[in-house]
Structures are given as C-alpha cells and as structure tokens.
Amino acid sequence: MARVKNEARRALTWLGAIVVGLYGLLAVGVVTGGAAWTPNLALDLAGGREIVLTPVLAEGSDDTIDQADLDQAVDIIRRRIDGSGVAEAEISTQGQNIVVALPGNPSEETVALVTQSAQLQFRPVLYVGTPAPVTTDEASAEPSASASASAEATAEPSAEPSASETAEAAEDSSTETSAEPSASASASAEPSADASASADATAEPAEGTDASSLDWITEDVQAKYDALDCTKAENLSGVTPGDPAKADVVCDETGVAKYIVGPVEMDGTDVATATSGPEYNSQGSLTGRYEVRLDLTNEGGDTFADITGRIKDLESPRDQFAMVLDGVVISAPAVSTTITGGQASITGSFTQESAAQLANQLKFGALPMTLEVQSEQQISATLGADQLQKGLIAGLIGLVLVVIYSLIQYRALGLVTVGSLILAGGITYVLIALLSWTIGYRLSLAGVAGLIVAIGVTADSFIVYFERVRDELREGRSLQAAIDHGWRRARRTILASDAINILAAVVLYILAVGGVRGFAFTLGLTTLVDILVVFMFTHPVLMLLGKMRFFSSGHPWSGLDPRQLGRDTMYKGRGRIVRTDQPTLAERKAAAAAAATGDDANPAGEENR
Predict the structure, then answer these.
(1) Which residues of 555-571 are buried (b: 16+ CB within 10 A; e: fewer)?
(2) Whether pTM exceeds 0.85
(3) Which of 31, 375, 504, 508 is such that its CA lies 20 to 30 A from the CA of 268?
C-alpha cells in the first residue's frame, strides 16, 4: 500500500513541477516584455494588414509573367515571412496580382520583406563549411593545420546536398560527372584557416584581383562567417544580398552548409531561361537521372565561359560557382571543363521535383521583375471576434455535456474526469501562449476547432480507463487489483488511439495548407497533453482513491457500486466475500420477527437462503 501511494504521489509531484515550470517560464516572458498572458491570434481572429502586389517587368522587356512565375514569387515571399517568425500569414494569387495578408500589426521590416524583389547572383565559391557559428576555440586553432588550403584540398568534405551537383557543357553530355560530395566540394576542419591563407588581409584586394582569389576573405568577411548561424530559419530566406563588388557569406537554402563567396560575376539578366528534364548520355540514351539545362544570353555565355575556364582547374571547393537567389545558395555545382556556347547542364542527385524547382528558381531570378504595392489596407477582426465567441460557446457547451455525462455515468468517479479536463485545458493554454512567444505561433479559428475536438479525445481516454476498471470489478477483483489490471489493459488502448490521432495530425500538417494546418497543430498538441494528463494525473489519482473507504467499499455514489455494475458478490479482503443479493441485517431482523408471530410460513428457509 505504501508503495502505491508513493508512486502516485511521485507522479503528481512531477506533474505539479511541470505545470509550475511552464507557468513560471511564461511569467518570466511577460515580465521581460517578450510574452503575454494571452496567445497571439491569427488573421481570421485578430485582423491584420493586407498587401496587394503587382509584378511589373522592366521597361522594354520582352518577357512575360506566367502562373509558374507567380507561384515562385509566392513561394519566395512565404519563405521570407516564415523566416521572420510571422505565423498564419495568407499568401495567394488573384489573376496577375499577389495578395499577402499578415496577422496583427506586422513591423515595417516584415512589410519590406514582402515587397523586396528577388535577385539572382552568380558568385565563385571560396570556402564551404558547417552551418553552425564558429566558437572562439575553433577560430583560434593553429593556422598550420590547413594553411595550405589555397594550394590543395585535403580537408574534410562538406555534407551539403548541392555539393554533388556538377555543371558541364550541354553540347557534350559525355563529360564524366561525379555524384560524390567529396569529388566536388570540400570544407576545412577549421573555419579560420582560409583567412590565414590570405595572410590576415585587413584591406580590400587591389582592383583587378581574381574573383576566385582568397584575398577576398578579409577580417570583416571572416568575422561575418564566424558569426553567421545557418541553423536559424531567418538566415535561410529573405536575406538582403551583400555588396556585389565584394565577397559575402551566405547559407545554403537547406541550412546544411555555409559559404564564403567572391564578388558577383553574373546576375539574372545573363540568364535567358532554364528547364529541367531527364538526362541523356552522348549516345542519346536515358541515364535514369534528371538535369537542369541553363540557357544564357550571348553576353552571359561569354562571361560564363571565362568563369568556368578559370575555376575548372582550381582545388575544391573553389571549382564551384554559387547561384544565390534571395540571399541564399540554391545550387553550387562544380566545374570540370570550360563551358562555351551559352548552354550548361547541371546534373547531380536530382529528383524530378527538385530539378523542376531549381529550374523555376533560375527562371524566376532571371526575370527583370519588380513587385509594386497596388494597395494596402487593414483587415477588421470584427467577423473573427464573432466567430471566436461562437466557437468558445460551442466548446463550453461540449465541455458541460461531457461533465454531465461523466457525473451521471460515473458519479463521484466523474470528478476525476472533470479535474483531468481542467488540468489538460490549463496545460494546453500555457503551451499555446509559450509557443506564441517563442516561435510566433498564432491561434486561428481552425486551431480553436482543434481544441474543441480535444475535449472528446481527452474524455475518451478516461472512459476507456474507467470501463476497464469496472470490467475488472465485475470479474470479482478488489478495487486496487482492478485498478492495476485495468490500467495495464487500458493504457495500450489509450496509446494506440492517441498514436492514430498524432499520425493524422502530422499527415494533415504536412500535406494541408492554410487553416487546416492550424487544426492539425492543435489536435496533435492536445493529444500529447492527453497522454501526459492520463499517465501523470488520472491514473495516480485513481490509485489514491482506491485506498479510500468511500470507493473501496463500493458506495452507491462512488461509481463503483456492485449493484450498478451488475455484480452479485464483492471481495472484502482476507478471503471474505459478501453477496449483494443477501438480506441485510435489518431485513434479517424483520424476517425473524415475522417468523415469531407466525407471518412467515418458512422462516428457516429464509434464514438459510
């Protein structure tokens, strides 16, 4: 008995510590000014700002804007907004316009990200390293470890995917290409080593310096490289491009690598178009891979021939050129031959989708297109407030009905359900408020719907558990034994049910867009909270209640009354069994009195029943 109590109290203590810790963390955020006691609301509930953008081509341009270009612009804008921490933004196209709706009161920096035009740049790669910022210990490593980085590539290869991409002349598809990262990219073990190769340069290189020269890695560039953290989402999209006449530090768009690149040698105006498709060898047979074919303008083709002729014999990774769109590297293929004729083929470990995406990015970056603000207005939250009120009323009605059902069906035991629902609601609320503070999450009307559905999910777990316990009681077990056996059977069912809910939430969140993702997020979050509450509150509380005489004796109002469960006997401990259909002491006395007066023809039979 002592072991059971200790186990239950330990679980409740841990749960209490978790709840206090969560609310304490939120309180710290409120005091420091970064958080609020109420969650942030999405566009449909809080209103916001709507910006209508119109794409405009440069004067005299013969290009046209199609739906694929608009979709690419929407994708870039969405990545910028997500990287800035603004959640639940709505971005769509209406005809030739792009409509961006931002919840709340977005900052001017966020609005500027929306209207900023994308720029495509071609820069030579000087260095490739890991995405994390460089610590003081790493930066102070011995230069001799890789001081010869400019002479030979002996360093550990980079793990970034684009390193396996190779550019070759489109006319000569028989050129040997490598899909191995080590054949096309290398990263030094010490990020500061490249700076030492440039003799700790403190000034800009002299005019006319080769764009692939390590002299471009000045102390300022090295400091920027050391500080840049490519594991953060804000550095992977919507980054303002650096000075095109100087070296820069940029991230791979997937966040798995960090580059030091030289000055811009080509830009989007040098690209005529880009397409993707299956790769063919020199005999005209399919290789089973996909490629991106890049068509350049006449001037761009001449410049590209000069670039590839210069870098083809350099050590890795300086034999690569980086394609930088919107401030991040979308591809960095290696070159093994001089590419002439204005056509190039980029091959590597592409899928059909990734090849098409890269082609669209290059094509979009080549468009001389700007985004002009056609209109900008505030969106009222009046309709959203009305919908939120109705949603909360619906949730309250559902909660009341669940409470009434629990009290009627389980009587005093139903109070455990009520307490569990209240606790689950409190934990869910503080988690949403913390997510609003830490990752910019905003609660939408669809998210509120997910919270309402969670009431039924949580109540279902309790019903499964209670019914398992009552089944064990019907089989003649004591209450404590019924709780133990019932829990072992119920928890498998609860975990299986919640696992299905979590799987459904994850699939919805990945595949859906818009409000459905908000529903999926809250559904998954509340399902995890349900598991926490059932394991650390409901079961421990029931273990403690099983020691109370009110429940263990099967009181009619306990919810564990033998007559209510349809059982004739009840285990009382120490081998004692009580039949519930046996006359009570008062009934026996009445029968005896009747027998004494001759009212009962068979008193002995009654006594011996």
Answers:
(1) eeebbbbbeeeebeebb
(2) no
(3) 375
